[in-house]
């Protein structure tokens, strides 16, 4: 079983594990780009399947929430959606208002 760091779709860091399907909560040795290795704990298995060569591969989340040194791994720009003011809603006539009140 070999593992390397990879970016997940949500922007956080995770692991790409080739070979056996990993087990949640176990520790695995991860090879870094510089050739050194680091022990990581498998927090959650996100996906398991086959790669283009027909070998088993899994994507797993890490327990440290995808944070690296010096910041987070989430997209830099997070825009909030403008929200309607609750006082402008009428729960009796507005179906959408029921979600607010």
Describe what is shown at a glance.
This protein has 101 residues and is mainly β.
Describe the protein.
By secondary structure, the protein is an all-beta fold. It has a domain of 60 residues. The chain is 0% helix and 35% strand. It is built from no helices and six strands. A four-stranded antiparallel sheet has the order 1-2-6-5, with no helix packed on it. A two-stranded antiparallel sheet has the order 3-4.
Please write out the topology.
Elements: E1 2-7, E2 13-18, E3 27-31, E4 37-41, E5 44-50, E6 56-61
Antiparallel strand pairs: 1-2, 2-6, 3-4, 5-6
Helix content: under 10%
User: Separation of termini?
Assistant: 52 Å
Q: DSSP helix count? A: 0
Judged by helices, strands and strand pairing, the structural class is mainly beta
Return residue spans where pLDDT drops below 50 for at least 5 consecutive residues: 68-79
User: Strand tally, please?
Assistant: 6
| Biggest sheet details | 4 strands, antiparallel
Mean pLDDT, to the nearest integer, reads: 75
Determine the strand fraction and express it as a percent band. Answer: 25-35%
Strand order of the largest sheet: 1-2-6-5
Shape label: globular
> Which value, in Å, is the CA radius of gyration?
20 Å
User: What is the element string, with H for helices and E for strands?
Assistant: EEEEEE
| Quaternary state of the chains | single chain
